[in-house]
Amino acid sequence: MKRTMRSHNWRSQMTAALAAALLGLSLAPLSVAAAGDSDDTTGGGAEIEKPADPIESHSPVEDPVDPVVVPAPDDPVDPVVVPTPDDPVDPVTAPEPDDPIVEEPDEPATPIPGDEGSGDLADEQDIVVQDDVVGIDEGQEDGEASSLASEAAIEPMAVGSPDEASPPFIYWDVKNASGNPVGGATFTIEYRGFARWAGATSVDDCIASPCDGPDLDPDPGEFLVKQFGGHNVVTDTRYQITQQSGQFSYGEANYERPSSNYQKSIGYSGGFNNAHGQSTHGFGTFVQQFVSVNVNPMPNPALPNQCGLSIALVFDLSNSLSDRDVDNSKNAGVAFIDALEGTPSSVGIYTFATFAPAGSNTNLPATTVATDDGADVVRAHINGLSRPTSAQGGTNWDAGLGQVAGGYDMVVFITDGKPTAYGTPGSAPPGNNDYGTRFDQIDLDTAILRANDLKSNGAFVMGLGVGSGVDEENIKDVSGDIEGTDYYLVANYEALEEQLEELARKNCRGSVSVTKQIVDADGEIIDSSPAGWFFTAATTDAVLVADNESLVSSLGRVTDEETGAVNFRLNLGTDPTASRTVTVTETQQAGYELVQQNGVNAVCEASGAPVPVTNKGALAFDVDVKVDSIVACTVLNQEPPKHGALTIEKKYLNVPPETADDASFTGTYACSIGGNETAAGTWTASGEGPAVLTEASGSVPPNQIPVGSGCTVTETGPDDTALPNTSWEWGTPTIEYPEAADSATVVANDAVNVVVTNTADRVYGNFEVTKIVDGTADSELEYSGDWQCVLGDETVTGQWGPIKDGETWASDGTHLIPLGSECSVVNENGRPDVPVADDPSYSWDGEPTIGDPVTAATQASTIIVTNTTLRELGSVEWTKVDDSGAKLSGSEWELAGPDLFNDGDVLAITDCTADSCAGPDADLEAGVFQIEDLPWGEYTLTETKAPAGYYLNSDPITFTIGKEDPASLEVTLDPVENERRDPPALPLTGGMSRDFFMIVGPSILLLGVGGMGYAHLRKNRREVA
Q1: What share of the chain has pLDDT > 70, as a percent?
Q2: Taking the CB of residue 139, how many other CB atoms lie within 10 A of it?
Q3: Percent of the chain scored above 90 by pLDDT?
Q4: Domain 874-977: what homologous superfamily?
Q5: Could you give the CA distance from residue 51 to residue 718 in angstroms, rounded to a whole number?
Q6: Mean pLDDT for the chain?
Q7: Is pLDDT above 50 for 129?
Q8: What is the CA radius of gyration of the chain?
Q9: CATH topology agreement for domains 1-53+103-291 and 511-638
Q10: 376: phi then psi, degrees, rounded to nearest 5
Q11: Contact by Cβ (8 Å): 977, 881
Q12: pLDDT at position 158, please?
């Protein structure tokens, strides 16, 4: 989205505001309107918006309004200050957003704090924007007008591709101090209700489509809201947003300058801004300031003082390197490998720029350099490194260190600048658009964390800073404080080669390495790093360095499987001309023999030049080691040609024990090397166990097959008559070769075994279970139970169901029911407790009825399991009596019960005394009541009409229908007694006396006259009002 700062007319607004303050009026805040559908497109300068909803002067004001205070022009607004790096960072062409933001003028806008839920209207700024131009008074100086306008203005936001949103809506964005979008922030948005903010809703930054929250803009750091908390954004309402949280390593957002208040509000004015929908209003840009993250560098672990480490080389390929620098960096890496070649070392290669690996480069995991082949692989990888495009030429220490796998003894981190990126820009963490255009603290902090991870896994992280652009403190943070140990600084990439070579030689200087290799009869290497070969080094005096750093005259070591090499270090003091003759002796392994090379037992070299070797018997040699030389020797061994044997074993899998012991199996075998047959023959087996192999005419015996021969085996199908019955059949045999290969390779002085396994397949049948419910039950109920199928001594069990009423469960191939088994339903243990969940009057009538067993067959037979339900309803009886126990007729009642009773309504009951009762009372006797067919639950009985001449007994009577005490299905209540009503006393003539009217009459007359007067008075008052 695009936005353009507008200048604003502020003088007329200030005049109106001050005038309002002097008059003591409460000015309702005026705000910028969100774009809507109005046809008002009037242009021109700014105008003063009339106060909204003026408050009557006689009404109390809940929220007093403070006078509007506008900062004087000579009070400058503190701009956002971004520290300028002491040294330039790598120039990076960051990917441009689809719709760049253009800001005018450069001076950041100052927010006018909004009110947060207090109802105070005074903190909002009145702003009127019409069309594309906001006027400035002609008498106002440009600088002063621009300053005040920038403080007060909330900018109109131009809507365009890719968002294509239709107004009205509200838009704002979040950027860091360098203008890059920052994703991951959370805001609260509110609309203005009556005298207060309302509808507070949290708005999380949507960073990828689809957006399912209030924010509809999928671009990180951009917010577009059309609806929140059930409220649709409209053009005549004020809105306010407040930031809740920002992204990792950022502080809270400021509105274009450092401030303690992070709220802004917008609203409506007298007219609409470009109301046809081409633009709308937003909150502008929230600038997030970087904050320091408390990341403490870990000290380096102790570096093993030995020659033969696992080392990772991490190369910086950022834009700050010229092509010459890249070439020099690669030359230095190759020199490092040259110096280590022949030692029991391994090296991995990694690169970084904005991303890691840098550009199209790939990583090389730890690779041995003890052999020529291994060293060549690493050198070729280094020579193939290339610098990425300039858009990806940042310096991402975090990614560079984070890509290095664990298991290294040392990580050599080469860089020539400051870190300018972190994570995976554009991807991780969400909203990370830091493509490496500047140094920010987060770039270093994350790199420290990655270095700490490596150190915690035992790796020594060594920084190697190249050139003047390196910040020594930054290098210390990721490596350590000790120059010459934790880190090194070199002047340029020309000097890097010497430094790397020195690092390589540091632990290996004055040592001899021995690499063991195994070759075949033709001299081809078949194992370049064999483990378990023991070598002994001996000198005439104690100069060999043992593992505990003591000096000895004899020392033994064993090759490992990673490098196939050992190293012996010598302590020859400080004399640069010192040297010693070292006698190296191999302990020969059984079946192998040492292979001389040009008549000597080993070939040695130092710095690529041959070193003379003198044989010492069949398995030893002497070589001179100088104080500063790295001697690398290679010893070859060969296993002489030998013979081996082929064996075949017959096995059963899932074969019935009744199978005949003498089942006969036959087959063939054939062996070859390079397509040439070396052995062939047949084999036979009777039941399980070893087979008998017979060589073919003219072939070698099966125990004299040449080593290295590959042998294959076949089988002729067995006779089915060996199985117990016709329900079994032989399956296809499986032939298993050692190590899951497709043939068996003959080894020396041993037998290679091939296993031929036969299976017997059972022919299976099936059966079904159908569920029937006789009576009333919930349709969603499910039923299940156990079944078993028996054939001879074999029993198969399982569970049928769960199924509903009328459904059928069927066994399948997973149940493995032998064909012909007798299958029966054992029980129904999965029946629900009650047939009707919300009516306990229903119950199961006894146990289920289970059908007869069936025979498992290819066409399944059915067993029917039937359940019957029973309903038991209750009744209640009571009598209406007087104080003497005589039954009273004519009473009426109401009975309230559970929801299932009378459709949840109260039942009206009258005393039935007729020959047949049409109402609920089933007892014909007067004063006796009987209510039947009552569902289970709690009831309340209340008398609503008493018998004539008796007082109403309004005490409610409660009882419970059910089976569990104190409930009962047949409830008989205690008799309900009514108190007799006494008749009034009358004169003997049957009427009232004359004296009574003489006494009471005047009082009644006075009351009537008084009432008429009071009514007249109220009428007159209403008319006056």
Answers
A1: 74
A2: 7
A3: 50
A4: Immunoglobulins (2.60.40.10)
A5: 104
A6: 78
A7: no
A8: 49
A9: yes
A10: -65, -40
A11: yes
A12: 32
Q: Whole-angstrom Cα distance, residue 426 to residue 135?
A: 41
State yes or no: pLDDT of 4 exceeds 80. Answer: no
Shortest CA distance to 702 belongs to which of 668, 673, 734? 668
Partners of residue 647 on adjacent β-strands: 753
Instruction: Determine how β-strand 907-910 pairs with β-strand 892-896.
Output: antiparallel
Q: Which fold has domain 1-53+103-291?
A: Immunoglobulin-like (2.60.40)
Domain layout of the chain by residue ranges: 1-53+103-291, 310-506, 511-638, 650-762, 764-871, 874-977
- pLDDT at residue 12, as a whole number: 39
Q: Is 404 exposed, middle or buried (0-12, 13-18, 19+ CB in 10 A)?
A: buried
Residue 506 main-chain phi, psi, to 5 deg: -55, -50
DSSP string, 382-451: HHT-----GGG----HHHHHHTSPS--SEEEEEESS---B-SBTTTBSTT---BSSS--HHHHHHHHHHH
Whole-number Å distance between alpha carbons of 549 and 571: 10
Q: What tokens were used for 772?
A: 């029937």
- Looking at the chain, the number of H-run helices and the number of E-run strands are 9, 62
Residue 707 half-sphere exposure toward CB, CA atoms < 13 A: 12
Structural tokens at position 600: 């000597």
Return the ∠ at Cα 568 (arms to 567 and 572), rounded to 5°: 140
d(CA 439, CA 429): 17
User: Does the 310-506 domain belong in CATH 3.40.50.410?
Assistant: yes
Q: Mind listing the pLDDT tens digit for each residue in 414-449?
A: 999 899 999 999 888 877 888 888 888 889 989 999
Is 80 exceeded by the pLDDT of residue 52? no
DSSP annotation of 179: S
pLDDT at 288 over 60: no
Q: What angle do CA 995, 1001, 1002 make, to 5 degrees?
A: 120
Three-state SS for 312-364 is: EEEEECCCCCCHHHHHHHHHHHHHHHHHHCCCCCEEEEEEECCCCCCCCCCCE
Question: Is the bond into 835 cis (omega within 30 degrees of 0)?
Answer: no
CATH of domain 511-638: 2.60.40
Look at residue 998 in the predicted model and tell me its pLDDT.
Answer: 52
230: left (phi over 0), alpha (psi -120 to 50) or beta: left
Axis-axis angle for helices 372-383, 323-340 (nearest 10):
170
- Per the structure block, which two tokens stand in for 408? 């290294």
pLDDT at 607: 87
> Tell me: the pLDDT tens digits for 570-585?
999 989 999 999 999 9
Nearest CA among 627, 582, 501, 568 for reference residue 306 = 568
> Would you state the structure tokens that stand for residue 345, as one six-digit string?
């070392």
C-alpha angle with apex 453: 449 to 456, nearest 5 degrees?
A: 130
Amino acid found at 615: N
DSSP 857: B
Determine contact, residues 834/842, Cβ cutoff 8 Å.
yes
Amino acid 22: pLDDT? 32
Whether residue 837 has pLDDT greater than 50: yes
Q: Name residues whose C-beta falls within 8 Å of residue 931's C-beta, 6 or more positions apart in sequence.
A: 875, 876, 877, 895, 907, 909, 920, 921, 922
CA 402/CA 961 separation, integer angstroms = 73
The DSSP 8-state label assigned to residue 600 in this structure reads B
Report the C-alpha gap between 562 and 346 in whole angstroms. 8
Q: How far apart are CA 79 and CA 57, in angstroms?
A: 42
Q: Match 């040592």 to its residue by tokens.
A: 511
- Per the listing, tokens 């006689």 go with 58
Whether residue 324 contacts residue 345, with contact meaning beta carbons closer than 8 Å, is answered with no
Residue 677 backbone dihedrals phi, psi, to 5 degrees: -65, 135
- Indicate the pLDDT class of residue 562, thresholds 50, 70 and 90: confident
Smallest Cα–Cα separation from 286: which of 215, 147, 160, 186? 186
Q: How far apart are CA 289 and CA 294, in angstroms?
A: 16
Query: Tokens 């068996």 identify what position?
Result: 744
Q: Which architecture characterizes domain 764-871 according to CATH?
A: Sandwich (2.60)
pLDDT on residue 580:
95
